[in-house]
Structure to design on (354 residues):
């Protein structure tokens, strides 16, 4: 009798068959980010999961909780008649004060494969009549595949097209709609599938090395790369990946042990795929509150000293996406000093002419 695939095994199978689906299918994880920028360089950061499971209060893609000094506030679902469970859609808000951008980056820009990464940068410059503050937040790419290079799949034209995509929900031309469809197909059908193939193929190699001493089976695996790739491409799912591959290729692996090995070796890949899937399904809102008059930005909309972005996820699939704002304040003392100098100069010149 066939052993029942483990939960982790089923997870890898489903994701493998779907090729991480189409990257822009639906937005199930709405999130709001807010940053109040103070003129001394300190920051008030708020992260809100608008529609989350209860466990998000303790475990989430930012790695934040009350354990690392964030203030958490949980609002129960609006419909009190619903049966309480971890699947209820809670609004969970985290907030924290940071003395500097470097301090915030230590928490929100950790180079970990299962965490969302945002890099903040605060700059303050004196220009005599004005003092300028430039603040930016850069969302790091959500791609977590380690064995494919985005440069091999995406062109400069792809990147330029992504950069000019409008905010979430804004209309685009028919020509751009076609370009977007082609881009999504390239992401899912080529980049994601190849990323999965390379990592799963590497895992299969390790399973064979652990269980079979004869290197000819690695050669068999290599000769049948296309067969394995097609298995990953299938949309019907694969109930037991190791069994399917070994049966098709006639590799004499001990199935129970090989499946256990595959599950163990796939845990880290699972974690990365889970992160990518969550981030892919995100709907993002970001807000800056600047201390002075805004003079420059790449925001989608501005209301006084508040700026808003609603980036589509393609913006940061494989490249950085920077959101910036610049504000300035008139230096009254510089005006007074300048007028005094001008007045003194005029006085001296007049005195010399008399």
């Amino acid at each position: 009798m066939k052993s029942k695939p483990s939960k982790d095994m089923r997870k890898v199978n489903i994701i493998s068959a779907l090729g991480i689906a189409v990257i822009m299918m639906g937005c199930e994880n709405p999130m709001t980010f807010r940053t109040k920028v103070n003129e001394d360089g300190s920051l008030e950061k708020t992260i809100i999961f608008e529609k989350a499971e209860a466990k998000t209060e303790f475990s989430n893609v930012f790695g934040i909780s009350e354990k690392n000094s964030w203030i958490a506030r949980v609002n129960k679902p609006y419909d009190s008649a619903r049966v309480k469970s971890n699947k209820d859609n809670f609004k969970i808000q985290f907030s924290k004060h940071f003395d500097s951008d470097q301090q915030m980056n230590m928490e929100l820009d950790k180079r970990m494969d299962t965490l969302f990464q945002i890099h903040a940068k605060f700059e303050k410059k004196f220009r005599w009549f004005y003092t300028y503050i430039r603040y930016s937040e850069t969302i790091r790419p959500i791609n977590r595949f380690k064995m494919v290079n985005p440069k091999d799949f995406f062109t400069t034209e792809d990147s330029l097209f992504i950069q000019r995509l409008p905010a979430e929900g804004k209309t685009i031309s028919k020509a751009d709609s076609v370009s977007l469809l082609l881009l999504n197909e390239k992401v899912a059908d080529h980049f994601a599938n190849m990323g999965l193939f390379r990592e799963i193929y590497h895992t299969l190699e390790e399973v064979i090395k652990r269980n079979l001493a004869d290197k000819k089976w690695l050669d068999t695996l290599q000769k049948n790369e296309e067969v394995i790739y097609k298995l990953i491409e299938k949309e019907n799912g694969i109930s037991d990946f190791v069994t399917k591959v070994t049966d098709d290729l006639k590799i004499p692996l001990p199935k129970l042990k090989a499946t256990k090995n595959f599950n163990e070796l796939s845990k880290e890949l699972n974690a990365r795929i889970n992160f990518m899937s969550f981030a892919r399904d995100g709907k993002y809102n970001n807000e800056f509150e600047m201390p002075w008059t805004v003079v420059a930005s790449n925001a989608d909309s501005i209301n006084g000293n508040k700026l808003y972005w609603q980036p589509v996820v393609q913006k940061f699939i494989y490249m950085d996406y920077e959101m910036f704002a610049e504000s300035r304040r008139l230096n009254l003392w510089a005006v007074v000093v300048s007028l005094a100098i001008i007045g003194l100069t005029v006085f001296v010149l007049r005195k010399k002419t008399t």
Observations:
- Residues 174-211 form the longest helix (38 residues).
